[in-house]
Amino acid sequence: MKLQSTRLFINNLQDNIHDEDLRNKFSRYGTITTIEIKERKNPVGNQTSHFAYITLEIENKALQECMREFSSTKWKGFYVDVQVARESFMDRLKREREESAAQLTSNSVNNGIVGSSDVIVNRNYRIEPSYEKVKPAIHIKHNENSVSIPEANDTIENGTANQSTKRKNDAIDNAKRLQSLRQMKEGYRQQKQFIKNSLSNIVRHQFCCI
């Protein structure tokens, strides 16, 4: 059977519990690596309750036996509650870092860039049409496949050109929006003048009819 590292939460322990007591009781289920005994104060009174965390290498079958035994019998006069503890923040952080590092290494190996003995890197030059100048590039050959990667200067100049083009396009768009607003303003002004003239004609007509 496969052993797995499991962190147990043991609740409702007696007050004078010691590490050795827990080690003697739980070592028959697996190999204990850490024991942490803690206490919790009752906010209402002065009483305290004790609990512990135990990490051990244990088989799944032995884990089920352990939880079943403590749920049905007393230990040192108490029914002890044994559960699989939630993963602590530090343990989760460590696990996620290890998984990320393993994934990064795996991706690099699969892409043939890291960990391969037959990677050949050649440096030559190519011509960038938009600038009409010679630019260095790195060619990586792996398993008869060739990949061209531009160097940093190439990326910087392309980025500068893209920013310049974007600024020009933004200026054109702003000019179009300004022209549209001016046309709308002129349209509103003409409508206002038309309404004003119409009202004046109505008033004059009423006075003429009196």
TrEMBL record:
UniProt keyword RNA-binding present: yes
Gene3D superfamilies hit by this protein: 3.30.70.330
Domain of life: Eukaryota
Domain RRM: 6-87
SMART domains, per the entry: RRM
UniProt keyword RNA-binding present: yes
Protein name per UniProt: RRM domain-containing protein
Annotated source species: Photinus pyralis
